[in-house]
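Risk mitigation, structural track. In case the binding assays with adenosine-5'-diphosphate fail to produce interpretable data, a predicted complex structure has been prepared as a fallback.
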Amino acid sequence: WSRSDFPWSKKLEANNKKVFGNHSFRPNQREVINATMSGCDVFVLMPTGGGKSLTYQLPALVCPGITLVVSPLVSLIQDQIMHLLQANIPAAYLSASMEWNEQQEIFRELNSGCCKYKLLYVTPEKVAKSDTLLRHLESLHSRDSLSRIVIDEAHCVSQWGHDFRPDYQGLGILKQKFPNTPVLALTATATASVKEDVVQALGLVNCIVFRQSFNRPNLWYSVIPKTKKCLDDIDKFIKENHFDECGIIYCLSRMDCEKVAEKLQECGHKASFYHGSMDPQQRAFVQKQWSKDEINIICATVAFGMGINKPDVRFVIHHSLPKSIEGYHQECGRAGRDGQRSSCVLYYSYSDYIRVKHMISQGVVEQSTYASVPRRNSNASSDRVLETNIENLLRMVHYSENDVDCRRLLQLLHFGEKFDGANCSKTCDNCHRALSYTEKDVTNAARQLVELVKSTGQQHSSSHILEVYRGSLSQHVKKYRHDSLNLHGAGKHLAKGEASRILHHLVIEDFLREDVKKSDLYGSLSSLLKVNESKAQNLCFGSQKVFIRFPTST
Ligand code: ADP
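Fallback model:
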């Protein structure tokens, strides 16, 4: 697909320069354009900033007829249209929030024999809910004027993805109605199973897949244990490494954003906050201040992200646990777009896992801008989504607890990409420490911990279980008479960190489950460990073994 002797090649080159002002194509752009212009269905996985828009805007310009683009967010669509109009490419959009008159005007234009638009953007809701739109598309199609269908942020189709959006699932109707119109599905984030799901749901036929490495060599990754002094640590980290430089601090809750921003201001940083409870003017104001470098640091929920195109973001700090590896990768990806070295630091604590898990189950966690996941209704589909969200979160716990393997390798592995850890060149904390590791058989300790959870009635938290296991004689342990249990002190030869890693591993691998609840009127959380009997059977009475890698101390 990289040939430059297709009938359209010269026209493409000329328009890429003249209209879009680009001197050349970026990796895979030419290939994707050739494949879609040959009439194939195409699935494109290209990192954020890779140049996905050109792969459909350029074909739209040089092909007769209209390109339909399904995109999740009106503000993104407006931004795209503004750029297209500036380049003199006629484009329009339809969304449910538009005035009836405005919509009629666009429909009239689509109906006219010589429709001026080259691109028509719509939100997925519009496709799902508007028969009028489908009728107009049918009419365009019958006049050979529907040249291509583009699905942007295509991973939103999949329930396995981290940004499932129900209206995206209805987009399969487009291929059913227009089987011969080529579809181009674009995303910056999809694992192999998400990709399969998307291809199936959209009904893509003999689809050609382009995927690019997700590796961002200029990003340096590290995970730091989160303590009570976390905000002091963040202040120190910025002053020592990125003083007066630009960065984003992702926080879990709106209150966290404000708290972190306030602390950083006190420490002399030009910081502000950004979250979903602010009104649109306030948010636009902060974003503008940030783009103009009037403030350096934004403390934000994941609502801050889409459409950020600032090239010189030097650090992305996660003040609490991200909800998935995909989300984490995408949020980190906002750093270092100019290719310069940038830091991605994650402050991790297991108790944040409990907090995020609770928020996910309650449906109160703030979503990235375009996700809208059904949570509270108890139908099978939303149960499955909830389960997937919790699995995704556990993968993030696994990543954070791993203090041995190359972080880059772990992230890329998640996207199904092989990476030779030796090539990380010490750009992650684990490779930097370059510790060797030993793989220990911890089956015995794992069995004992499961037994202990059972014998204490599955009514206690992981920290209580660890205390009993390591032989604590605290008030709390005595109160429940857990100092008289057989397994009291069975793990006293293990370091605290080692015992907790084994316990967390049992949760990650689903032998144990955290049952998170609000424990009092003030909303403090309690989490009780429960045994997953079906899995634990094999561990306690069968041949299942548990291994964990531990760094070898130097
Ligand atoms: P994505 O959608 O993949 O995140 P965009 O389509 O928004 O990326 O492109 C990111 C930036 O790269 C835009 O500013 C765009 O103008 C620029 N860009 C895209 N293709 C090229 C190219 N071939 N040469 C130079 N700049 C490009």
